[in-house]
Amino acid sequence: MEPDYNEERRYHQAQKKVKEIKDFYQHLTIFILITIMLLVVNLMTSPEYLWFIWCVLGWGVGVLFHGLKAFGVSPFFNKEWEERKIREFLEKEKESKKQTWK
User: Which Pfam families match (predicted)?
Assistant: First the structure.
């Protein structure tokens, strides 16, 4: 009996997806812990100016995009865009090879 490479490929893709989601949750956890730490430091050193907000906003954008990517919600570079670009590059390569052989 031949091994089912398609099933193995699907398993590895699922495994990769789970790792991406796990990595996002780790990123989110670290973000929350550091945000709390920054808030405490900010309130202890200069409570009149909440500078920690700028750190949280900057890093928060990164966490947001990481989450969108991990859960497959990509408003800009989604799967359809990726597939279209791959086909485009393959066609360009095929055309350039045809030009070379002429």
Answer: 2TM (PF13239)
Interatomic CA distance for residues 102 and 99, integer angstroms: 5
Q: Which pLDDT band holds residue 47 (cuts at 50, 70, 90)?
A: very high
Q: Look-up: residue for tokens 């360009």? A: 92
- The one-letter amino acid code at 95 reads E
Cβ count within 10 A of residue 70: 18
Q: Report whether pLDDT(97) > 70.
A: yes
- The answer to whether the predicted template modeling score (pTM) of the entire model surpasses 0.70 is no
Phi and psi at residue 101, to the nearest 5°: -80, -10
Tokens of 95: 């055309």
Higher pLDDT, 50 or 83: 50
69 contacts: CB under 8 Å, gap ≥ 6? 20, 24
